[in-house]
């Protein structure tokens, strides 16, 4: 079973993605902030991370920087899953090592599941 870490501070957004990912057979864990998400990524070693940008404690770009700088998490594919649609944020995320940048309003939960499967080769 592939492990997905969803780092998202909005409980409503968590609910939207949690059920489709679970129904698709993923083992999914959620964290509501960047600090907790980083700790979970290091300790749990997920197969893929879905990461929001706008969070209260540490923004997603800084979380991405730290994930890619850590020897335990640097090779985990990270997808930015966000409401931010600015092209410069997309370019920044890619330059920091994100494998994809998905806007929540354009990529619905079933498509998120399918795209995760494709990235993971399942």
Describe the protein's architecture and organization.
By secondary structure, the chain is α/β, with parallel strands linked by helices. It has 5 helices and 5 strands. The protein has a 5-stranded parallel sheet with strand order 2-1-3-4-5, sandwiched between helices.
- Summarize the main sheet: 5 strands, parallel
Q: H/E series, N to C?
A: EHEHEHEHEH
Radius of gyration: 13 Å
- Strand tally: 5
The termini sit apart by 10 Å
Strand content: 15-25%
Q: What value does the average pLDDT take?
A: 95
User: Class by helix and strand content?
Assistant: alpha/beta
Q: How many helices does DSSP assign?
A: 5
Strand order of the largest sheet: 2-1-3-4-5
Broad shape: globular
Percentage of residues in helical conformation: 40-55%
What low-confidence regions span 5 or more consecutive residues with pLDDT below 50? none
Task: Present the secondary structure layout.
Layout: E1 3-7, H1 11-23, E2 27-31, H2 34-44, E3 48-51, H3 60-69, E4 78-82, H4 87-96, E5 100-103, H5 109-120
Parallel strand pairs: 1-2, 1-3, 3-4, 4-5
Keywords, separated by commas or semicolons:
5 helices; 122 residues; globular; alpha/beta; single chain; 19% strand
């Amino acid at each position: 079973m592939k492990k997905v870490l969803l780092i998202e501070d909005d409980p409503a957004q968590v609910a939207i993605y949690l059920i489709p990912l679970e129904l698709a057979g993923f083992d999914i864990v959620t964290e509501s902030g960047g600090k907790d998400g980083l700790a979970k990524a290091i300790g749990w070693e997920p197969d893929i991370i879905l990461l929001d940008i706008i969070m209260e404690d540490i923004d997603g770009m800084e979380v991405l920087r730290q994930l890619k700088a850590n020897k335990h998490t640097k090779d985990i594919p990270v997808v930015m899953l966000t409401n931010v649609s600015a092209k410069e944020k997309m370019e920044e995320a890619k330059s920091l090592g994100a494998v994809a940048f998905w806007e929540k309003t354009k990529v619905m939960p079933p498509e998120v599941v399918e795209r995760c499967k494709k990235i993971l080769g399942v």
